[in-house]
Amino acid sequence: MATSTLYKMRSIALREINGGHDESYGHLPRYCEMVKQTNPGSAANCAWRKNDPQLSLTFSSIFISFKGAIDGLGAGCRSLIGVDGAHLKGNYGGVLLSAVAIDANNELHPFAWAIVSVEDGENWKFFIWHLKQILKDLNRGDDWCIISDRQKGIDLALTEL
After folding, report:
1. In the predicted structure, residue 51 carries a pLDDT above the cut 80
2. Which strands sit side by side in the sheet containing 77-87, from one edge to the other?
3. Assuming Cys at both sites, which of 14, 42, 124, 131 could form a disulfide with 67, CB separation 3.0 to 4.6 Å?
4. pTM higher than 0.85 for the full model?
């Protein structure tokens, strides 16, 4: 058989077993609830929007930070946080927003991330708001320094929140 035929057959089989991308996105709210149930103290939030009254809800954004990463941030990281966005390739695109800190060994400690549709002020507000809730719960005060590349709405989000 030709390689392209095998690839198509494999793709069809995987879709039958795992479902399509649309179906996978539908599991995200349940995934967030499972993260919070099985890992208490974690932050997991999924947002949806309704573009058209006739259509069902569509995925908007998700924010995840696991309890272990949060505890590591509070126990052994400096008060310096870097935030940035990276564009995702694939069928749906989007942007991966992330927050990292510097630990006692001068190594990066990733502790929070989100997937959003575009890198803009509203999506950065979504990310920064959730980030602020995590930092507030660490009981280390407001002495955090946040650095960024000042792209598309980060300044606005930090100033407003």
Report:
1. no
2. 43-49, 58-65, 108-116, 95-103, 77-87, 145-147
3. 42
4. no
